[in-house]
Amino acid sequence: MKLKPNYPHADPKQYIAFMNAGQEGIALEFAQRLAAFFKAKSKIGYISSGYRNVARQKVLYEQNCKDHPPAGDGYVARPGNSWHNGRCAIDLDDRGFWKKYMESGDMKRTIKRQELYKYGLCLSLNHVDAHTVFEWWHIQPIETIGYTGDRTKFLDPDDRISESGEITIKDFQKAMGLRDDGIVGPLTIAKAKEVQEVINMILRGGKAI
Predict the structure, then answer these.
(1) Quick one: pLDDT at residue 200?
(2) pLDDT band at 165 (very low <50, low <70, confident <90, very high)
(3) Which domains does the chain have, with CATH numbers?
């Protein structure tokens, strides 16, 4: 696999949170490194953008070109040329500590980049209008440095995908209007049985027996 398990790991479900559904599918190794970094900071990493398929990237790119004709402002990559398409990039939401952490001076930025390297992570430097733009919000695995090919073909087949988007007990309880304490008590079990009956009926073609 192109992403090697040579860096600190932590449980992504505990230390990173995706703000938008459907973007959880980043590489698992990448998610575990991110979680390890935020665990060390005793923080949650709030992710505003994770995995994006090429079709979604195309929509964003075309909109960016319309907003900044004729070829966009450089902040949205062409479809297939974004690390988001390759499951190896995330954008952090500015509601967390990260923005202030990274915007506190160029020298400190350099030190903090080196700190990220310890976790197998790197920051993006984007080229816009002949200028190198520092993107404080955009993080990638360190192995992506220098790769210029199709981002969607970067990962090997044995690279696993993050399961951060799986429904948890708390998610289920919240959706069912129960107290979301994560404890599988009588009320949670009863509600799960109700839902299971509905699922079984759907799988039988909508016929109750």
Answers:
(1) 79
(2) very low
(3) 12-153 (3.30.1380.10), 169-203 (no CATH)
pLDDT, one tens digit per residue, over 104-133 is 666 556 767 788 999 999 987 654 444 455
Least reliable range by pLDDT among 23-37, 53-67, 89-103, 184-198: 89-103
Q: Which amino acid belongs to residue 34?
A: L
Question: Could you write out the three-class secondary structure of the chain?
Answer: CCCCCCCCCCCHHHHEEECCCCCCCCEHHHHHHHHHHHHHCCCCEEEEECCCCHHHHHHHHHHHHHHCCCCCCCCCCCCCCCCCCCCCCEEECCCCCHHHHHCCCHHHHHHHHHHHHCCCEEEEEEEECCEEEEEEEEEEEHHHCCCCCCHHHCCCCCCCECCCCCCCHHHHHHHCCCCCCCCCCHHHHHHHHHHHHHHHHHHCCCCCC
More confident position, 197 or 116: 116
